Amino acid sequence: MENVIPYRLQIIAIILAVIFMFFIFRLISKGKLREEYSFIWITCTAFLLLFSIWRNGLDVIAKLLGIYYAPSLIFIGALFAIIIFLVHLSVVNSKQHKQIKDLSQEMALLKEKLESDKKKD
Amino acid sequence: MEREMNNIVKVAVIIPCYNEQDNVLTMFSEIKNAKYDSAYFVEPIFINDCSTDNTKQILVSNNIHHLSLPVNLGIGGAVQTGFKYALRNGFDVAIQMDGDGQHPPCELEKIISPLLNHQADVVIGSRYISNEGFQSSWLRRVGINYFKWLNKKLVGVIITDSTSGYRAINHKALQIVSEYYPDEYPEPETIVLFALNNLKIIEVPVIMRERQGGKSSIRAYKTVYYMFKVTLGTIFLYIRLKFNGKRHTI
Q1: pLDDT at residue A108 tops 90
Q2: Hey, which residues does B47 pair with through a beta bridge?
Q3: CA-based, 20 to 30 A from B167: which of A97, A121, B42, B44?
Q4: Which residues of chain B approach chain A closer than 8 Å at the C-beta?
Q5: At the fourth CATH level, which superfamily is domain B2-243?
Q6: Interchain proximity A105–B80, CB inside 8 Å
Q7: How far apart are CA B66 and CA B42, in angstroms?
Q8: Does the beta-carbon distance from A108 to B69 stay under 8 Å?
């Protein structure tokens, strides 16, 4: 009886991982998620799937790294991934900030040129 | 400056304004009515930084030369728009002047003339050389002393009024600021930018007035953020210019 619940959990985990993967692929194919951002999500789903199939994987890796309580590996890994991704988003944000600034300035300059050309005619 | 050949020096006076409906008309007429040497052609250009009041309507209905930004970029972005305009339209000198009436146009010639005599590439109008006129709050003066120390340490120039927005720059400096100009609180940071691009900066004494209307962009509670942001900006700009092969050098 001991193994019943973990097996049920494993099946749920696999189903959820597959749904998540399907969701990501749909976003990419619909053009709602750019390929450069999709990379990290595909990797994420791959990990989810890997560990929902390979049940002992977490324990094995935790033992290898010398982590006593295996689930804390999940938290550390997830936290690390989230922080890296947030920095990545800040970089993207800064780049867009500069692009918006340049575009607005260009627009103001063009509008002025249009107006002054109109006055000359 | 090659364009001086026909002896008329084109001077763009760049006035960034954000919600300055009470000041624009006075500023415009003051600049237009001030007496200049016949060698100058002074053109005021207002940059409307997406104001939410009637600044734009006033500019349009009075037929004042202006550029209107579609989104609010902040003072740095607005001033840079003016610099880009000046560069593309063949101006020899660009002067930055705050839209709140703190900078009296009668001092314009004082800050232009060192550029034309080739004494400097950048001229900053300083309140603290002769200590006359409006001197601003003690907190601001503490900040200014700190920036004076920071700039001296980093690039070895002593600027007594590094937060002064009243400055004139020549064609060489214009090319640099069109490439890169800080968004927020650009004044102290640009001193490092100019100095590391081997431009000569000098200060001339000017007498400033108290704001004619509206609110200052730097308020007491923002001072800490201001100091932090400018310090960070200045130091990283220094590192970038010093060690990354001078990306912004022309």
Answers
A1: yes
A2: B16, B67
A3: A97
A4: 47, 66-71, 73, 77, 80-81, 84-85, 88, 183
A5: Spore Coat Polysaccharide Biosynthesis Protein SpsA; Chain A (3.90.550.10)
A6: yes
A7: 14
A8: yes
